[in-house]
Structures
1.
Amino acid sequence: PLTADLIRPISVSVCARVFTNHLEQVGIPCAATMVRDLQKFARLGARIRGELGGAGLQISASNGLKSSYKTGSQSISTTAYASSVLAKSTPRHPSDAYDTSLFSGLFGDSSSSRVTTPLSEPLEGVEIRYEPQTQAVTTSTTTMSNGLKIATENTPGATATIGLYVNAGSIYENGACMGVSHLLEYMAWKGTKNRSSLRVVREIEAIGGNVLASASREQMAYSIDTTRATVPEALEILTDCVVNPKFELWEVKEALDRMKQDVKNLEDNPQTTLLEALHSAAYSGGLGQPLIAPKSVVSSLTPEVAREFVNELYTGARMCLSGAGVEHNELVRLAEPLLGELPAGMVGEPPSQYIGGDWRQFAAGPLTHGVLAFEHAGGWNDVKGSVVATVLQYLLGGGGSFSAGGPGKGMHSRLYTRVLNQYHWMQNCTAMTSIYNNTGLVGIFASAESSHAEDMVSVMCKEIESVAQDLTDVELARAKSAAASSVLMNLESRAVVSEDIGRQVLTYGHRKPINEFLQEIEKVSVADVKKAVTEMMKTPPTMATIGDVSSVPRYDLVSKRFG
């Protein structure tokens, strides 16, 4: 068998005989090429044995998984956890040393504990290093002297995720720096005052890191996945890239080219186009600012603009360092010299006022796309209201006409059973929510054949109205289960846990226990959902449509339907 025993200097003739016996026992004719291959392997084993012996190393195979290595006065024991091809049980009798079948040699003798021990029981001689969690993992939080918060959850596993989250996004932009958040997303993990771009890349590769950066309307996010052993190196790279960017001119120009491509790609992505348009029509102030930089302002962005934005907003009191799979006190100790010198400045959040409105744009094509939304007043800071809005999204569900979608968006959701199953001309009908700290949008996105654009808007209005009229307990129970399962499923991801910690700490000042959200979901009643929808319909609607908009109803007619 191909085991550790083959390292012994056995004769080539014995190897050939053993291999021939194995083949004959399983009914495979012995091929001369196979024998020659085994002869080469035996010579290699003898040569390895000789070289190791010349280096003062003696190798002996023991019973099964363990091998001992001796050199001088030192003895090192190792345990093989991988394939049994590299380990063989001690023969029961000298005459049985090579009298085993091919599959026994590969996968273990029938008398071996590796074959007879159930998977639910530990193997003899194998050390189990993992200890199951007996208590729920909690979130630990520390506030540094400059106001920066460090929050971690020591999730089990050999890998970790750390991230820096900043209260800085498109809502903080003005006419002089519009689009800078979009630019900063592409300038992440570039050259710093201490590292070139090449060095940043090479150091991330050296620790096996996986990096990510994203811009949103209220927050900027930077995260890195790595092993627990390389958290110190990962944290040093992360903090350097976030707080010490150099903004080289040539790198900024490359980022601007990518931004121009994003603007061009909007033409082929009506859903993203409508989401941008929806915010511009719904809000005045910060949330009305575009997240994707308009083509007209891209060329005006410079390294100086980006540098000024970072210097003003990337301060200690506006940042959170989050971690999942890391030890809290150790991360605090590592972060002190890296982030403790940041200024503690705090800039207030620009006001945003919901006003509602209409946006429409003609585009050639067979489909007309539209969004109809209302304000969810209170945003994330209204915990009960945001939970009801989340359950409402899973209640409506929906998806594409050829896809059942994910949890809560399958064939049992209202938009699937009442819309996609009823109207052949409807290509997509999906619930949408965009919730922020103090406000939010809840509505429906739809795509339909252009000849049915008026019917599409009518169906969206009807479905929103119907939730406040004929919602049943069975539908709500299904939606609550889908919402809870989706939350729990997402939190199985270490990266999601780290992001959840960072964003919650920036919003609430701490991380709310998951059980608190699950309890709020369970408390939601039919009356709560009906009341929330009724209150939303009292706010001015916001519409955004693109395609053949000639037959889309006028905004005032849609508004009167809810007035």
Note: Confidence is low (pLDDT under 50) at residues 1-15, 57-109, 404-409.
2.
Amino acid sequence: MVWIRLKIAVPLALVMAAFLACAESGSDDPNWVPCPIMTYPNPPWNASGLGSGQSAVGRIDLEASLALGLGFRQPWLVPAFHAVAGSHVEDTFISECTLARVPLDHEQPTASQAIEILVKRLAPRQIARARSEASSPAHAVWLLSGGPGGSSADDVEPLHALLAQRLQPRGDFEVFILDHRCVGRYSRLGCRWSQAETRGSAEGVQIDDLTEWPGCLSSLALDFPHVGSRHFSVTAAAQDLHMLMERFRRPGQSVSVYGISYGTYWAGRYARLFPGHARAVVLDGVVSASGTLQPEERLTFERWDVKLHGVGVAVLDHKCGNDEFCRGKLGPHPSERVADLFKRLVQGNHCSEPLRELGGMPQLKKILGGLLYGWSGRAVIPALLYRMMRCNVEDAKSMKHFAGATVELARLSSCCGVEPSDPFAAPLRSDMLLRNIVLSELWDPAASKEQMLSWSNQGWFSMEIFNSWADLRPQWPVYSGDALFNTSLSTSSPVLMLNGDTGCQTPLWSATHEFETAKSSGGVTVLTWPDAVHFTALNTPVVGGGDACGLTTIAAFLSNPADEEAWRSPPCRQHLRRIDFRGDPAINQLLWGSEDAYDGSPGAQSTLVA
């Protein structure tokens, strides 16, 4: 999921006017043209970027990608992307793009303005050559990105090439990605006229909460008339998906859909609208779409810090408390000791100087919350808490070193690091669309800013990402939920759900509720991945290396949903890597100045080979 802060209240009329930015015109007859596999050169979280200065499509610059963090945070992915690089994606697949026009209003398709959506497909070259032959059918898989407001370039583009490679030996596949309506390069909800997202603005491509949002929305209000926010909904995006699936499917071709994070909510809406249309449905990092807010059944954003705290306590008590090494440091019930630690920190009579070095109590909580996101980050949490509990002279030195390791902490605090390598690159995500969908469908309107602040204060892993949105929500032109809002999944397609048991963006309870309420004549299965974080296709490493087990499972399911043995119990599930609370020596050296995260001191001689 994506998040951006907002600290001001925005007038209703200005926000309404902003939505017309999504209604640009385009070509009536889109053509497929060759295009790069990757949008961003060298995305920090993977190794499938274009090399600097290379014109070939899909060449891999592993050296640059490793320098940006893949080997640091997700070393198990290196062999997979080495394999992609070694096979030369562009020699095996044709990457093509088109700008597809869809109606802004699906209820009035002929009278409506049209918007443009970028669609990209990868097909093996032999399939592409036979595209017009009805005797050569293929399967099509459509990948849906997270967010809301995220573009396909932000998270699914690197997986696009990797999944296509893994599906190739299993059958006749082509793999599609598309931008959600109103994100990406075309028909994007944004602030182009006020130039608030340009490099020369106050915050570069970021929109400054206090100084740039008012001008951004005011300039749009002057240029565009009113457009209803319902046109930028999840249901509208699901209708886009179905329309484009039908437009681009070959004779006899089946279609499947694979959604990640918010993409599971998007895919679920499509499956509800068009039950049985898909050959298979994969939901990775499940956003539960129905049920009550208390007890927790339906996943919403205003309780972000509540769910972070719940996952954090589970990591402490169920993971650390059941690990022999970690239990030796924090005891069998770590949360009890952590509660005592925070009580002493609040009183101000314990470890005050190291706490100040870390940025104070709010920043400590943000560090702890951020470390829940990344696979390698969870191992850092007990070490930090252990040193704060003891807080001797050597611990103080180590925590000062830790406080300065900002780059390493940022890399660890992400499941996949969805940012372009150039921080000034034109954003493809849409913060306007993010707010429109979240505040309309993924928010409890009864939650006050005071209540959200109370939740943050009570938790130990609080990020305070969305607390300011409580003041914005009453002014936003939210659209009303349609007939499919807050309903259980009902389809006839086979459905596979995957979720890590320590995923903090989509906690396990979210996937469990969606599974328990879903109905499909094709069968519904949920696979829980021990110790995995968000995005199980990439964050389910196996001992000894090789593909992430989640990727193997997904490829097997998409290849043949009826072959349950192949995707329910692949051999890799018996060899999953688990959290090593000792930490990686190289990461420990960067964070603490010592290979020993718990008892080492900065400056200690390293045994690592240069």
Note: DSSP finds 25 helices and eleven strands in the chain.
3.
Amino acid sequence: KMASMRRTAAGLWAIFALGTGAAAGAHLGTVSAATTALRVRMSGSHSAAARRNVARASGADRSLPDEYDLAVLGAGPTGVTAAVAASQRGRRVIVIDDPGSGAKLQVGGPSGLFSKALRDVSKRIQVSTLRSMGLLDTSIWAQVQSMCKEIALVETQNTVRKLQRSGVPRIQGAAAFSRTHDDGSLEVRCRMRDGTGLLVRAHNVLVATGSSAWPAPGIPLDGRRVFDSDSINRLTYMPKSVIITGSGIIAIEFAKIFAALDSHVTLLVRGDRLDSCLERFGMDGGFAGEVEASLAASNIEILFNAEVDASSFVVPASLAAPLSVRITQKGQQEALVREACLYMLAAGRDANTAHLNLDAVGASVDGRGNLEVDSRLCTANPRVYGAGDVLGPPSLASTGVEQATAAVRAMFPAGNEELQEAMEGGGVDPTALLSDKSRFPVGIWTTPEMAYFGLSPAQAVKDGRDVVEGVAKYADTLRGHVNRCSIGSLKLVVSEDDGAILGVFIFGDEACELVHYGMELVVGARTVFDVQNTLFAAVTFHECYKNAADDAVAQLAAKSSPAFRRYEAVRM
């Protein structure tokens, strides 16, 4: 069966439409209605069947000759993980991915890959230095784009290799459910770029279509001067000034990125302070002061209680002239009129479910448009599953991958799931990844980074626990001195009862790496005394953990807490 699957996949790999660059195009298994008739190369009966289907299809929907055990809608990290996992279980799988309009930036990467790539480039290129050397902005931006595309291409090639090794073909088309057959199998129609349709039949479907930027009513998004968090990756010039609406992860990320690229950035925040904004995406609000100081250090202007007047946009045709917009602030009688090279809306994301025709298979969405699933990540239709951003928060690549693995296990149980989960550490409740932020690590790629795992002080108190907060400053570590870190902190949330570490929150360099040690401390029920007595390598940021532990223990001692009294009794 596996040999047959690979022969079928090998034929489908030859049906290509577009990729990301020549190198990726040479590998990407992409089915295109425009090229299907000329480029199907399947062996034996598969080849004949495919040719017959194409010959019959003039003007009508084409049908792939085979039925699949699983059709995966979406080729991001979630979809690719599910496809590979199902293939490893001996299942015949096909991936269907909507390239959208224009060239696809990458295949297999998360929706935020562009911002991560641009962030990396902004740290390596000193725009002000290049300008002082006489380089034009057009040349600088061309280099920035080239470096971003290189990062995306590497991710694409890695993804393609994964799919090829697993014998999984990929179609590029906009998928929607068509109908349910009498045997319960599902038909998915793929709208190709030339407007024709391609029908795929599968016994199970995983919806991993991700999310899209929320389009605020009235904002004249044009992908040239007025952008959202999706269209910004089509930016073709170096902006000298930027206005961003939003206070979440994406807004703060891009504010810091554009500031690093020597742009003057104005950040519009609807609320009156940052702590509530941080808490919305799970970060401890106690870091708000440092985050605000970091933004100010990058010369980012923050306007609180501020919104743009959607009707006030004046967008000149020429890029040489700035756009203008009116900004209203709560408590201020007169509106501000600001000019900038571009405006970016970063005010949330919506699940990509509207065009899937879910009614055709009996699946449904909630009030926010997120796909509704049960504890097995299954919809009301027992053959339709969901994973990733399409389910709503937390909308992280890492949790999407975990959900994809759990969904495949639910679809195709191997008979030894309990043993397998035990060997892998007990498994993860997939529903917890939707609602319980203490079940997964979160990394936020601002500059510097933010990351956390476990309970915040507020969450711990809400759970009825008395806690202390051990805090360490990056500047107080040797590595901090070496790196000249004026900003950065690590916080341990510690139980007064037994000294257990309940949560770790970090804002500073390499926070997204450091959080995994903190995760191990929380999951392993390690105490602050364990950390205090741990030997760390010199000149590393892990010294922050020891300093934070020292701070927490000092507070436990000052309170004569049960944890400290027991610890002292053992030491005696």
Note: The radius of gyration is 26 Å.
